[in-house]
């Protein structure tokens, strides 16, 4: 349901508290006290059948006795009463409830499940149960059992844990950090992370979002909301449970490498979230984001009165991936004019231990004005030679003067070592971020840097997939379907060869032999070419072949093949008497002396579904544990990033007499594996290990694949909806040249650039409601890089030339009820019916997705579009606030609209 009715949780005008109590230390009394002492200006009513009034506030016996309809119901009543209260609230039309009560249990048959079922038919939104509550400082609303009301600010806090939320509120209160809202989810029977991310992403009072996560349930909803939120504001997350006490044995290397926390990390990275490891780091992030906006660059200038702490700060900056700014000769000369001769003459700018306020002021003025740095860290070590408070005041004076003079506010961070007094109060009053140590300050600086880098990465255009990417999806599906029909859970080597071959993934060929004589016959062609062979045991019950000496390498003649094959089978019968032995497989011995051994694999995470794993491979793959994970689907850019996050990345370059490996071939294998998972969701785990990579390309030497049926009707098991290839259609074109209608791809940027050259200035004005003079990368990226779970854009491509002829897009609201469309056709093709075709395709898609309504804004002088909308069944509404605009609306639930669109 997403943001539906969430306004009632975070902007209520009236409240009702069910479970208010006069009993000391009871939950109902604490929450009542917090609401009243917080100063909430809206109306408050109490519900308690045993008391006519509580602390001077009248109380009614039940929800049916309330005077009017409150926007929000807060529940602190005993657990057994909660489902009934929720059912009554829904029936009365109350839009939202916060259930602070704990002890409702979990799962089928629990009070929590009964509560969710009671709320659902009425559309009642429920936060909780077992939660801290809701705090909205700008409304003086403290509907919680937190010990204090936080200050007004622009950070939103979403926490699964009430204790963590309460601790953050306490910490923030001591550091002058404020919040736009604090929401504790508790057991989250309704409102979850996805809902709250959607709400705060659009909330103008919120500049950044902090999250404490224990687990994610609806991962597709979460990923979609997180990616959308991260594009517009920083989202910082801390997750508990990074190191489970025990791990189950995995059947494949990729299963062993892909721990649960590593998958969460990959998900956060894919969504563009900033992950921190503990509350200390989250506090540092809150301190930074509470006072500073993200900025370009990562060059840091350091100003200090102590050389030692300056060097420590440089060490931490390098540790965290930052860059130390360089002082130009001109800047050094200007600092020379205001500093003593003994200053450091470099960065860190050490102004010596006797530095007073005047010296701090003079040096900081130079660094703030310096365009060769992007931010400044100012540090002070206490000495008996100068006043730390006076120096702090001088720093604040420079910052405030610079803010008043310039629209570009260069970030300044401060560390006053050991100070808990006057300097702290000075920085708090001025809203200057300050930290207890150089490490915290550098972390805070890097949080801002990494947010900008993550945002840039989300907007970066991936390179096109090379034309040699071919796939035969039908053959791949046929292999898996036959194997499942035979009751298999593992594919045999021959099936794997066909499966991978359908996607052009190179693998050493294999031949089945049931005994030594068949093995010798299969090896004969390789010996004729002077090539050695490899033998491997084939049994569905023996997964790790090398553990029973079931792999024999570099066999050079037929007699040796017969002997080794029989020995493998004899040993397998002795060590695994219950195993089903099919025989051995014969493979050519692949010798690439300068190749790197890699692993490319997939595993199936119980929360996030398919995950791609890449790293250094070979027999010691688990020992090396050099791997990185990514959520599919992958494009070439994501594949490149995945490689670069491992130690294998640097090894792929040239060194000594070893030529560089073909990185594009490796990236392409990762993309192909990702596409295979999308097309054949029955593939659950895959090991390509080792994959040999050198300057001639890549080849998998060994592979294992597990399969399992998928639920009927399942569209995708991916956490991030993949490119919907099934939506590609062909329509007749002009002059006998067919047109492909397909969803937009992230790599379509150049396609759009060329398309816009064929659109007149007036048509661009009609589409974008203003003259468009320049098409920046950011502008086009927002059109090509869409979340298929929330939006769709179809482009019309002339198949003969590959040119884009037009496009239509529809973006759903957060509740997935309405969609807003836009359409544009090349100016030289207007009047040929392409606009009509695109509009019909969009309407058909919206209806198939279950949207109830499609709407759009059209300039009143765009008579062609208005006429087409009328013919398609839209109703035309005039905008009362803008006489130049019309709103066009199509009701997809009306029979007339269906008929009109279908004709």
Write a short abstract of this structure.
The chain has about 900 residues and is α/β, with parallel strands linked by helices. The strands form six sheets. Strands 31-32-33-34-35-36-38-37 form an eight-stranded mixed sheet, with helices on both faces. It has a seven-stranded mixed sheet with strand order 3-4-2-1-5-6-7, with helices on one face.
Give the topology.
Layout: H1 7-10, E1 14-18, H2 27-38, E2 43-47, E3 53-54, E4 57-60, E5 72-75, H3 82-92, E6 96-99, H4 111-119, E7 125-127, E8 133-136, E9 141-144, E10 151-159, H5 162-174, E11 178-184, H6 193-202, E12 208-213, H7 219-230, E13 235-239, H8 253-257, H9 260-271, E14 274-276, H10 279-289, E15 299-304, H11 307-319, E16 323-324, H12 329-336, E17 349-350, H13 357-369, E18 375-380, H14 388-405, E19 412-416, H15 422-430, E20 434-435, H16 438-459, H17 473-485, H18 493-501, E21 511-513, H19 516-528, E22 533-538, E23 551-555, H20 558-575, E24 583-588, E25 596-605, E26 609-616, H21 621-624, E27 627-630, H22 636-644, H23 648-651, H24 663-679, E28 683-694, E29 697-700, E30 703-707, E31 729-734, E32 737-743, H25 749-756, H26 761-768, H27 777-784, E33 791-798, E34 804-812, E35 818-825, H28 834-848, E36 853-859, H29 863-871, E37 875-878, E38 885-891, H30 895-902
Parallel strand pairs: 1-2, 1-5, 2-4, 5-6, 6-7, 10-11, 10-12, 12-13, 13-14, 15-16, 15-17, 15-18, 18-19, 19-20, 35-36
Antiparallel strand pairs: 3-4, 8-9, 8-11, 21-24, 22-23, 22-24, 25-26, 25-28, 26-27, 28-29, 28-30, 31-32, 32-33, 33-34, 34-35, 36-38, 37-38
């Amino acid at each position: 349901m997403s943001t539906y009715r969430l306004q009632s949780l975070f902007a209520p005008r009236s409240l009702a508290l069910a479970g208010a109590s006069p009993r000391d230390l009871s939950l109902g009394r604490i929450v009542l006290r917090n609401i009243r002492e917080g100063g909430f200006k809206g109306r408050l009513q109490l519900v308690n059948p045993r008391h006519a009034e509580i602390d001077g506030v009248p109380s009614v016996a039940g929800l049916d006795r309330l005077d009017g309809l409150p926007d929000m119901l807060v529940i602190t009543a005993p657990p057994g009463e909660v489902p009934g209260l929720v059912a009554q609230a829904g029936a009365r039309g109350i839009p939202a409830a916060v259930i602070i009560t704990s002890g409702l249990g979990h799962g089928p048959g629990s009070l929590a499940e009964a509560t969710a079922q009671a709320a659902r038919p009425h559309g009642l939104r429920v936060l909780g149960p077992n939660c801290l509550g809701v705090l909205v400082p700008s409304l003086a609303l403290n509907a919680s059992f937190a010990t204090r009301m936080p200050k007004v600010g622009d950070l939103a806090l979403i926490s699964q844990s009430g204790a963590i939320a309460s601790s953050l509120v306490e910490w923030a209160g001591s550091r002058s950090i404020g919040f736009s809202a604090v929401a504790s989810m508790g057991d989250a029977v309704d409102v979850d992370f996805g809902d709250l991310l959607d709400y705060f992403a659009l909330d103008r009072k919120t500049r950044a979002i902090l999250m404490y996560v224990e687990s994610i349930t609806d991962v597709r909803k979460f990923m979609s909301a997180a990616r959308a939120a991260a594009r517009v504001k920083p989202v910082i997350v801390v997750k508990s449970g990074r190191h489970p006490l025990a791990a189950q044995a995995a059947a494949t290397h990729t299963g062993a490498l892909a721990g649960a926390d590593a998958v969460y990390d990959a998900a956060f990275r894919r969504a563009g979230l900033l992950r921190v490891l503990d509350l200390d780091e989250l506090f540092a992030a809150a301190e930074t984001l509470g006072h500073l906006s993200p900025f370009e660059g990562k060059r840091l200038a350091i100003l200090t009165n102590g050389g030692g702490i300056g060097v420590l700060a440089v060490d931490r900056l390098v540790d965290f991936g930052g860059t130390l700014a360089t002082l130009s000769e001109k800047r050094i000369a200007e600092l020379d004019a205001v500093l003593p001769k003994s200053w450091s003459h470099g960065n860190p700018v050490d102004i010596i231990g006797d530095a007073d306020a005047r010296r701090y002021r003079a040096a900081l003025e130079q660094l703030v004005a310096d365009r060769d740095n992007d931010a400044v860290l100012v540090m002070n070590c206490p000495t008996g030679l100068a006043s730390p408070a006076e120096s702090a005041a001088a720093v604040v004076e420079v910052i405030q003067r610079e803010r008043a003079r310039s629209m570009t506010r260069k970030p300044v961070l401060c560390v006053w070592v050991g100070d808990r007094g006057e300097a702290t109060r000075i920085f708090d009053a001025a809203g200057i971020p300050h930290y207890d140590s150089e490490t915290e300050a550098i972390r805070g600086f890097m949080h801002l840097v990494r947010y900008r880098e993550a945002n840039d990465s989300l907007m970066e255009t991936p390179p096109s997939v090379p034309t040699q990417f071919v796939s035969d999806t039908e053959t791949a599906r046929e292999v898996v379907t036959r194997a499942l029909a035979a009751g298999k859970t593992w594919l045999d080597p021959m099936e794997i060869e066909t499966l991978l071959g359908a996607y052009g993934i190179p693998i050493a060929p294999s031949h089945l032999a049931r005994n030594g004589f068949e093995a010798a016959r299969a090896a004969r062609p390789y010996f004729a070419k002077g090539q050695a062979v490899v033998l491997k045991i084939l049994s569905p019950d023996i997964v790790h072949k090398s553990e029973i000496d079931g792999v024999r390498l570099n066999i050079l003649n037929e007699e040796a093949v017969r002997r080794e094959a029989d020995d493998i089978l004899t040993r397998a019968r002795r060590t695994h008497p219950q195993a089903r032995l099919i025989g051995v497989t014969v493979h050519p011995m692949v010798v690439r002396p300068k190749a790197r051994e890699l692993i490319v694999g997939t595993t199936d995470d119980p929360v996030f579904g398919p995950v791609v794993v890449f790293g250094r491979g070979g027999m010691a793959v688990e020992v090396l544990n050099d791997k990185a994970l990514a959520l599919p689907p992958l494009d070439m850019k994501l594949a490149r990033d995945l490689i670069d996050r491992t130690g294998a990345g640097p090894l792929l370059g040239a060194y000594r007499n070893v030529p560089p490996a073909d990185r594009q071939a490796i990236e392409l294998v990762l993309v192909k594996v990702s596409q295979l998972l999308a097309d054949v969701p029955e593939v659950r785990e895959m090991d390509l290990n080792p994959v040999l990579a050198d300057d001639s390309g890549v080849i998998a030497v060994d592979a294992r694949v597990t399969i399992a049926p998928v639920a009927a009707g399942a569209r995708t098991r991916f956490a991030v909806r993949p490119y919907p290839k099934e939506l590609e259609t062909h329509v007749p074109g002009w002059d006998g040249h067919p047109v492909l209608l397909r969803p937009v791809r992230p790599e379509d940027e150049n396609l759009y650039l060329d398309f816009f050259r064929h659109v007149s200035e007036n048509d661009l004005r009609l589409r974008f409601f203003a003259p468009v003079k320049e098409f920046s990368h950011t502008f086009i990226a927002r059109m090509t890089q869409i979340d298929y779970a929330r939006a769709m854009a179809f482009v019309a491509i002339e198949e003969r030339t590959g040119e884009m002829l037009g496009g239509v897009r529809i973006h759903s609201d957060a509740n997935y009820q309405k969609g807003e469309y836009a359409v544009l056709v090349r100016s030289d093709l207007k009047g040929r019916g392409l606009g009509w075709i695109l509009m019909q395709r969009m309407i058909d898609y919206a209806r198939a997705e279950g949207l109830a309504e499609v709407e759009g804004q059209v300039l009143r002088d765009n008579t062609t579009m208005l006429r087409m909308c009328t013919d398609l069944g839209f109703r035309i509404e005039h905008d009362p606030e803008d006489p130049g605009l019309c709103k066009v609306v199509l009701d997809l639930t009306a029979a007339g609209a269906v008929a009109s669109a279908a004709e």
